[in-house]
């Protein structure tokens, strides 16, 4: 995609959306790596102002923008009704898509780029890093509440915006293919890491098999449950809105829970070279588990709650597999900032998996409290 031109946004893109007032400012916004995001400020006739988020969608990653936006529209419309039913504020508690002037939910420009606009959520902030355990707890409650609100949504009707995203059986097959092809001749130097993954092949089937057999329900899943995808109210410090719905797809609640534990309960950075610093913090594991189960408000089954530790382990193993496969393929997917960056990332994930296995009984006991 070409560089963003603010002049073009003023003259050609923003005027094609049904925004109120006169556009006075357009500035790059946020820290996202996938889409290009701009905050628009408009002055209204009464002198007040209204702000919007304008995004250019990354169609290299999301190949079917129309299907993606259909998911977003259907899920946010459903959420809006649920929020109104329980007396909430639908303008702040879910994303609100602003249509184009001709009534579409996205714009395709003459360059073939895809754009969308949302109402900007005022007096709220998203944080890239967990500052306190309360942040982690609040994010857990928010993602759990997202699950609760969508428990009646027909998940199977959603499009898969990235096919097989958390299909660990498929991810394992991709990993084995990367090992066999060994296009960069790197496999000989990472035999220990390769063996670590291959020894856990049976684990990769656990959630997929449970879904296939109907032992756990198919649910609407967010699939990118990072803290910065929650808007935190500036006054109350509580999570008010789950954002970035591009990867909303059918899946298991264990995916969302597990990915949060993977990054949020780790004591080290995702690319930490000193593996002695990398462990799964049981205090943070318990804080998130408590918040997530509370947020889900009784919508999780007993089987799902008992399987939460497996969700954490499998999402961590999957991520490690993907980092190592990318290293073997020449670092073609994840951006790297140094040689062996993806290998370092894979090793941190595998260290976390090994630590979870050591603490398995402790994790099971913590989860048991919330049945």
TrEMBL record:
<dbReference type="InterPro" id="IPR011009">
    <property type="entry name" value="Kinase-like_dom_sf"/>
</dbReference>
<feature type="domain" description="Aminoglycoside phosphotransferase">
    <location>
        <begin position="27"/>
        <end position="264"/>
    </location>
</feature>
<dbReference type="InterPro" id="IPR050249">
    <property type="entry name" value="Pseudomonas-type_ThrB"/>
</dbReference>
<protein>
    <submittedName>
        <fullName>Aminoglycoside phosphotransferase family protein</fullName>
    </submittedName>
</protein>
<dbReference type="InterPro" id="IPR002575">
    <property type="entry name" value="Aminoglycoside_PTrfase"/>
</dbReference>
<dbReference type="Pfam" id="PF01636">
    <property type="entry name" value="APH"/>
</dbReference>
């Amino acid at each position: 995609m070409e560089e963003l031109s603010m002049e073009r946004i003023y003259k050609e893109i923003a005027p094609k959306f049904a925004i109120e007032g006169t556009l006075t400012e357009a500035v790059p916004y946020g820290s996202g790596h996938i889409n290009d995001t701009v905050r628009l400020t408009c002055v209204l006739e009464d002198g007040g102002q209204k702000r919007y988020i304008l995004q250019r969608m990354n169609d290299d990653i999301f190949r079917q923008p129309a299907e993606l936006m259909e998911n977003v529209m259907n899920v946010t419309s459903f959420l809006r009704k649920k929020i109104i039913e329980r007396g909430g504020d639908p303008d702040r508690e879910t994303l609100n898509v602003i249509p184009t002037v001709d009534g579409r939910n996205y714009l395709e420009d003459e360059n073939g780029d895809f754009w969308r606009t949302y109402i900007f959520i005022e007096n709220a902030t998203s944080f890239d890093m967990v500052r306190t355990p309360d942040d982690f707890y609040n994010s857990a409650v928010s993602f759990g509440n997202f699950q609760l609100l969508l428990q009646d949504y027909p998940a199977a009707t959603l499009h898969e915006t990235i096919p097989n995203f958390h299909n660990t059986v498929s991810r394992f097959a991709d990993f084995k293919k990367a090992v066999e092809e060994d296009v960069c001749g790197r496999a000989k130097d990472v035999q220990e890491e390769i063996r670590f993954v291959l020894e856990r092949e049976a684990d990769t089937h656990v959630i997929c098999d449970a879904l296939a057999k109907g032992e756990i329900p198919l649910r609407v899943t967010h699939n990118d449950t990072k803290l910065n995808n929650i808007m935190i109210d500036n006054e109350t410090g509580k999570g008010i809105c789950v954002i970035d719905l591009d990867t909303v797809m059918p899946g298991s609640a264990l995916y969302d829970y597990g990915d949060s534990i993977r990054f949020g309960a780790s004591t080290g950075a995702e690319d930490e070279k000193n593996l002695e610093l990398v462990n799964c913090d049981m205090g943070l594991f318990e804080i998130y588990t408590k918040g997530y189960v509370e947020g889900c408000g009784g919508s999780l089954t007993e089987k799902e709650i008992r399987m939460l530790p497996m969700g954490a382990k499998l999402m961590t193993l999957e991520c490690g597999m993907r980092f190592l496969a990318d290293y073997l393929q020449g670092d073609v997917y994840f951006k790297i900032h140094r040689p062996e960056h993806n290998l370092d990332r894979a090793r941190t994930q595998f260290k976390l998996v090994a630590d979870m296995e050591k603490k398995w009984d402790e994790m099971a006991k913590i989860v048991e409290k919330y049945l």
